[in-house]
Amino acid sequence: MTKELAGKVAIVTGAGRNTGRAIALTLAEGGAFVVVNTRSNRAEAEAVAQEIEAGGSKALVHIGDVADANAVRAMANAAVKQFGRIDILVNNAALRREKPFAEMDYAAWREILDVTLDGAFHCVKACLPALRKSGAGTIINIGGLSAHTGAKNRAHVVTAKAGIIGFTRALAHDLADDGITANCVVPGLIGTPRPKDKPEPAHHLTHRTITGNRGLPEDVAATVRFLCGPGARYINGQAIHTNGGAYLGA
């Protein structure tokens, strides 16, 4: 593939592992300089940055919780100071817990929304001045299959990811005059490494892909890369599903 993103600067939140890592590496392969964000795991972030630089691009590690507006502003400022611009924002950071609604307290509810939904808000607000200057700014929000299908024991996650869809559509309207597109990439049934104490989400067991195969983080990353490129400027306000046919819907 070409270096269609050469000269662009991207921020990818939650980029230390799995899908976030794949997105950061894939955007770098397209020529973008990448700010690699993680909430606390510096070792993971630095490993991703080293991979990016080994591939010939540039990276900046920034440790910070997207639920903290001050930390997010510091990240945006660091990106502009280091690279001079921000063209792409990928809101990937999220928490995915499982708990029956009857046992869920408000703190557990807010924990998910603070990171997934409020975190996206903080990131867009902080990056907006630089995205406006880009002339071809791109916001990609990472959604979730369960926002469209529902899922047991995930009221907080389903709500947050459904909110991301609405947020994306609102941004597409509000920011169109600034030359900024906003789209949502919705992964489904992606095979990612999971700790032994964290089994596969229960709702994955009730869905199947058409081919029978699980997707890879790189499949999601490829969709993100396309939406960030010059060939996708007419795509705006959309939820693009990357799920192997596990969900077929609008």
Descriptive tags:
250 residues, alpha/beta, Rossmann fold, seven-stranded parallel beta sheet, globular
Outline the fold blueprint.
Elements: E1 9-12, H1 18-29, E2 33-38, H2 42-54, E3 59-63, H3 69-83, E4 88-91, H4 106-134, E5 138-142, H5 146-149, H6 155-175, E6 181-187, H7 217-228, E7 239-242
Helix pairs in contact: 1-2, 1-7, 3-4, 4-6
What does this 3D model show about the protein?
The structure is a single chain. About 40% of the residues lie in helices and about 15% in strands. The chain is of the alpha/beta class and about 250 residues long. The chain has one domain: Rossmann fold, CATH 3.40.50. It has a 7-stranded parallel beta sheet, with helices on both faces. α1 runs parallel beside α2 and α1 crosses α7. The longest helix is centred in the middle third of the chain and has 29 residues.
User: In CATH's first tier, which class applies?
Assistant: Alpha Beta
Query: Structural class, please?
Result: alpha/beta
| Fourth CATH level, the homologous superfamily | NAD(P)-binding Rossmann-like Domain
Q: How many DSSP H or I helices?
A: 7
**Based on the structure, what is the oligomeric state of the protein chains?**
single chain
What is the CATH third-level topology name? Rossmann fold
Q: Give the end-to-end Cα distance, rounded to a whole number of Å.
A: 29 Å
Number of domains: 1
